[in-house]
Design a protein that fits this description.
The chain is of the alpha/beta class and 242 residues long. It is 38% helix and 24% strand. The protein contains nine helices and ten strands. A six-stranded mixed β-sheet has the order 6-7-8-3-9-10, sandwiched between helices. Strands 2-1-4-5 form a four-stranded antiparallel β-sheet, covered by helices on one side. Helix 3 packs parallel to helix 5. The longest helix has 16 residues. Bound molecules: adenosine-5'-diphosphate and magnesium ion (MG).
Length: 242
Amino acid sequence: MSLLRVEDVDKSYGDEEVLNGVSFRMERGDVDVLMGPSGSGKSTMLRCINRLTEIDDGEIWLDDTLVTGADTDVNALRQEVGMVFQGFNLFAHLTALENITLGLKRVRGMSAEVARERGAEHLARVGLAEQADSYPAELSGGQQQRVGIARALAMEPKLMLFDEPTSALDPELIGEVVDVMRDLAEEGMTMLVVSHEMGFARSAADNIVFLDDGHIVESGSPEKLFERPEHERTEAFLTGLQ
Ligand code: ADP
Ligand code: MG
């Protein structure tokens, strides 16, 4: 059974159809990169997967949980789905380590000591062992985003969602975040990533999904999509990126 099944999902805001019959599946360990023009529905798609946004029709399944079920436990679901946004969303008054341990204590019910150990492990995993006691303002944007990734990973999610994780970063800081994401991909994390970073897409993605105007226009391996796109729309968009 696929880990993530998005089946014929529709979503409108008022009379604007934002997702229109979107279906795709991800296997465990897959890295899918969702690309498409601004306003094509990429963020909305991610938000529907952790119920930050409600769909109008269709179904989304994560493993054996009907994500979009009326009586689904949304808090439990969000422990299974880690999310990293464009902004870093760290608590300014907490250190890097405290930003991670907060959820472990409150949501996972860990003791302070166990949470600190777990948090320190995950900071080390993103190369920030030395920055545990730094406050967000003392960290670069790239370091803050890596703390955000460590915070999501510490919850041990089944699936990680990334929404343009590098688009708010100065160009010289993008590489360190992409490197962490590439490591995660190699370790077998299942990742659905909205990004236009061609380097990451080419080297880490199993599958590129091209969304335009709320429809999946085409999807396939990076080689297929980048070298031999079937649709003019895909080719025009991707040509504009490189
Ligand atoms: P993308 O991430 O691909 O740029 P979005 O999913 O953010 O696209 O947005 C798709 C469309 O839905 C856009 O036209 C956007 O204006 C609209 N939209 C997104 N969120 C909302 C909202 N909360 N209320 C109304 N319209 C929204
Ligand atoms: Mg977006």
